[in-house]
Amino acid sequence: MTAVRTPPRTAPETPARPASRTPVRPRELTANDVVTMIGCAVSAVSLSWLIFSVLTGGIGWLGFGLSAFAIFLALVFVVTAEMVGVTAATDRIATTVILASAVLLMVPLVWLVGYVIVKGVPGLTAHFFTQDQKGVTPILPSSAGGGAHAIVGTVMQVGLALVWALPLGVLAAVFLNESRSRWRRPVRIFVDAMSGLPSVIAGLFIFAVLILPYAKKIQFNGWQVFSYNGFMASLALAMMMLPTITRTVEVVLRLVPDGLREASLALGSSRARTVWSVVLPTARTGITTAVVLGIARAVGETAPLIFTAFGYDLMNTNPFDGPQESLPLFVYRNIRKPDLSAIERGFTGALVLMMLVIGLFALARYVGRDRQRRRGNRRRPRLPTLGDQPSIGKQTP
Amino acid sequence: MTVTAPSPAPLGKVAPEPRIVTDVPSRVDRVFNRVTLAAGLTVLLLLTLVGVYLLLRSREALSQTGLWTFLTREEWRTDVNPPRIGVLGLLTGTVVVALIAVVIAVPMGTMAALFITEYSSARSRRYLTTVVDLMAAIPSLLFGIWGFLFLSDQVEPLSKWISKNLGFIPIFAVDKGARLTGSMFIAGIVVSLMTLPIIASVVREVFAQTPPGEKEAALALGSTRWGMIRAVVLPYGKGGIVGGAMLGMGRALGETIAVALLLPQVPEATFRILENGGATVSGFIALRAGADSFTVSGLMAAGLVLFVLTLGTNMVASVVVSRSRSGQGVEL
Amino acid sequence: MTETIDLTQEAASPNGRGATPGAPTTIELVGGPPPGAATLEARDACAWFGDRLVLEGVNLVMPAGRVTALIGPSGCGKSTFIRMLNRMHELVPSAALSGEILLDGADIYERGRRAQDVRMRVGMVFQKPNPFPAMSIRDNVLAGLKLARVKCKQKDELVEQSLVRASLWREVRDRLDSPGGALSGGQQQRLCIARSLAVHPNVLLMDEPCSALDPTSTGRVEETIAELREHVTVVIVTHNMQQAHRVSDSCAFFLAAENEPGRVVEQGPTETLFSHPDDPRTLAYVEGRFG
After folding, report:
1. Of residues A66 and C121, which shows the higher confidence score?
2. Could you tell me if residue A377 is inside a domain?
3. CB contact under 8 A, C278 and B2
4. How many CB pairs under 8 A join A and B?
5. Is A295 helix (H, G, I), strand (E, B) or coil?
6. Does residue C40 register a pLDDT over 90?
């Protein structure tokens, strides 16, 4: 029996290709949906107004907003369920709620920053950075004097704290990640425990151990070392910074691939040299980021300073002798005073503090971003090079 | 000519025994080992010292008061003789404020984390992550003054409405004519802003590790995005959410400056969150700089109680996260 | 300990860097390994991970100046064995071993011998290329010197010599200061080879060096291996039989039966092993009947 052959079919005439092709992304919301949502929003606001302004007492704009939103969601649900079904309706309000919460998240931050800027700028003069609070009385305006003593104090206290906490923290992180000691587990548990220490307890601890028993009894060089001063504050700050630095540096070290350590050991290196010449340089940007973030957090700590540096209105450039001011203390002490000019002054200090923290944060981001760019280099597709041909023949360039 | 090995060990051959391998560490390595060990042990020692000292120093106050009385007495009065101090009033406030903060921060943080991992585009993801990280970096002092001088007044009408219309619920009850600023409710809101970034970060890391295969399977079966989240992401991330919540709780328990500004810090064991009143351990301590020896001892005892509470919460958080399916790769 | 090396014609570069064609140049290394290729011998080597015996009774001679390939299906202990040869096996906390590994007649596990010194004489190239990302290409090549505390005054010549021997010189000669991680996979692996060669080791171990590379790069690396045997003994683990056939002088066939430790089933000159092996299992493997 002969096979039946299907005659070949000619392809239909294809229309001329369009000159350009525009990509289309499928959209979730149709115009209809948008109109529906707007309608629901309007209804929700009106209903809220009805309930709160007319029927019950006022609730303030915060409550008004919350309830209007809740009613809006209910309306959207009902309408969408009517149109498309319950499942889609649930999905719609879930999306709306999650989207709203993400937006809402940004609101307090923006508000806070805006508020501090608005309240702090009036008192921000050039001499804020050069003068202290000498001779400032409550009747003087908020621009009287300055916060230079606070800035100097912060720099000194945080700087000293770094001197105590940074080497110890990095070494402890190296111990936890690079050594094989059986003490690693207890040390790790203790580091985690220490990170949960409330900051005020650190200050109270330094106060009770070093200041209270020895105040005015021991002097070095005429300096009251065991009393309220910047040095004590730096010790308390170091207690807070140490676990943070240890943990973040340990995470960074763990990210260094093990293959690098193996390669180094296989070349005949000792463990110490491997850490020093291979692991640490590879982790350098990560460690720097971690340290800058640690500094940013330490700069804003107030509670440990209350019991140690105590606060002072005049410039004190000796952290080992006498109470010292610091930016957070400056803000805290002035905000709590009853006179308006002091409160304004406090806000100016808060503005400076905020700018410092945000600046450090941006610095950490910048340092970290550099690292990503370099990594991106490696993943770039390989550009063709001359040496790719497998010929061995020598070529004159 | 090749050499072949005999087939599997002939009978009677003695099983091989491992030999002891020694290595002579170079001098550099010996120094390295000692220095790093010293660093690790110093950290260990430091914390032990803190704990021991807290205990010793608390003895003065505790021996005078008695441990049980200290834990159950509400008031703190050093103006009478003998002084009557107790930590219950402080603990109540601490826990209530922390609970309010966590109740607000966990849903918000989880939803923000969901947004970042499931809903956002690459650009908005970067913005939101930056916002969350920046919120974590802003000092609590600034949140405190914003809350104290601004937010309080904005929230007060809401408090008033709740107390008037929902006042039959005990925690919302308010005495007639009582002030509604300086309440634990407002303090809780402000503390939640500080707890939110921690929870959002932990939960985000956890959600990011959801196996994409399972997510795709749910979508391929025709579920909506929310349905997929409910079926796959949330169950997977349960442990992480609980762990993050407890970690946030630990942070909220230790918050000092904001509550020092926002609450009157008068010890009382009250559950009326809308009313002016309440005190927390850290905030109370912070307001007592320059105290005398006995008060310091009492504060130490209170601080020790708080430390134990925070430590316990953090430890439970670690255990919960590490035991959960999602917590395996997460750093707490 | 100093050594004299002749720079061959290959290294001559027309733009003046390096030696003029034909003239020998000496590169001295102070504190480095003794010169020349060395013989490695394993006597009754066994390896454990915890309580599990993974390798049993390996007797193998890897002659100086030759390429020895370790072949066999995956999981038979080839990688474990090769890591015993430069004392990397003991880095795993639960690892144990027995038997002797002789480098030029002396047991490397002898009491009092430092693992560091052994690793300087026996270099290793890993499966996944791992150049140091924080260093430039030049510093990567010289890294072995820095890490093993070996001194050399003619650093530039050494860099050129090592990169020439690794067949990478022509491609990177004008970007020696760019970061080591910015190269392609094949180039990175050749950089790792150059890095290992810079300390002038007596033996070079290669643990599946081409398995992460594309075919072109694999070809380049194989050519490099062939040229290396003048300077070092090469021991290479590969589960690519054709590769073993192409590059090696002698082979050892590893096999592990179910629940049994790995053993060397047959060893000998490559040609013989591939054309008329004695053991039927070897025949089955080289014919591709299992892998």
Report:
1. C121
2. no
3. yes
4. 276
5. helix
6. yes
> What residues does each domain of chain C span?
7-18+38-286
The verdict on a CB contact (< 8 Å) between C278 and B21 is no
Q: Are residues A39 and A68 in the same domain?
A: yes
Statement to judge: residues A58 and A132 lie in one domain: no
Task: Read off the DSSP letter of residue A220.
Answer: B
Per-residue model confidence as pLDDT tens digits over A291-334: 998 899 899 899 999 888 888 888 888 888 888 889 999 999 88
Instruction: Kindly state the percentage of chain A with pLDDT values over 90.
Output: 27
Specify the DSSP class assigned to residue B81.
Answer: S
Which of the four pLDDT bands, split at 50, 70 and 90, describes residue A104? Answer: confident
Question: Is a pLDDT exceeding 50 seen at residue A11?
Answer: yes
Sign, Cα dihedral of A130, A136, A138, A141: negative
Looking at the structure, tell me whether residues A114 and A44 fall in a common domain: yes
Higher pLDDT, A6 or C250: C250
Same-domain pairing of A144 and A202:
yes
How would you class B247 by CB atoms within 10 Å of its CB: exposed for 0-12, middle for 13-18, buried for 19 or more? buried
Overall number of domains in chain A: 2
CA angle at C153 for the pair C139 and C33, rounded to the nearest 5°: 80
In a domain, A331, yes or no: yes
Which superfamily, per CATH, for C7-18+38-286?
A: P-loop containing nucleotide triphosphate hydrolases (3.40.50.300)
Prediction ipTM score: 0.86
Same domain membership, residue A81 and residue A159:
no
CATH of the domain at A334: 1.10.3720.10
Same domain, A291 and A167: yes
- Is the distance from CB of C60 to CB of C233 less than 8 angstroms? no
Q: Answer yes or no: do A263 and C192 touch at CB < 8 A.
A: yes
Looking at A78, A93, A120, the residue that finishes a domain is A120
Suggest the residue from B30, B87, B161, B163 to mutate for an interface test with chain A (most A CBs closer than 10 A): B161
**Average pLDDT of the residues in B22-46:** 88
> Which residue range forms the structural domain that includes residue A35?
31-120
How do residues B53-84 score in pLDDT, each as one tens digit? 888 888 888 888 888 888 888 888 877 788 88
Q: Considering CB atoms only, which of A277, A387, A397 is closest to C146? A: A277
Same domain, A116 and A146: no
State whether A222 and A270 are in the same domain. Answer: yes
pLDDT at A154 over 60: yes
Give, in degrees to the nearest 5, the angle at Cα A340 between A334 and A343. 30
The verdict on residue A51 lying in a domain is: yes
The Cα-based distances of B161 to B71, B72, B96 in angstroms read 35, 34, 21
Residue pairs between chains B and C whose CB atoms are closer than 8 Å: 63
Any domain includes A24: no
Of A120, A146, A176, which residue is a domain's last? A120
Q: Decide if C223 and A392 are in contact by the 8 Å CB cutoff.
A: yes
Backbone angles phi, psi at A345, to 5 degrees: -60, -40
Which pLDDT score, from 0 to 100, does residue B330 have? Answer: 57
